[in-house]
Amino acid sequence: MSHNPIRPWRNIERRKSRQIMVGRVPVGGDAPISVQTMTNTDTSDVKATLAQVLRAADAGADIVRVSTPDEASTRALREICRESPVPIVADIHFHYKRAIEAAEAGAACLRINPGNIGDAARVREVVKAAKDHGCSIRIGVNAGSLEKHLLEKYGEPCPDAMVESGLDHIKLLQDNDFHEFKISCKASDVFLSAAAYQQLAAVTDAPIHLGITEAGGLTSGTVKSAIGLGSLLWFGIGDTIRVSLSADPVEEVKVGFEILKSLGLRTRGVQIISCPSCARQGFDVIKTVEALEKRLEHVKTPMSLSIIGCVVNGPGEALMTDIGFTGGGAGRGMVYLAGKQAHVMGNDRMIDHIVELVEKRAAEIEATDAQAAE
Ligand code: SF4
Question: Which of 145, 190, 246, 348 is most deeply packed, by most CB within 10 A?
Answer without folding.
Answer: 190
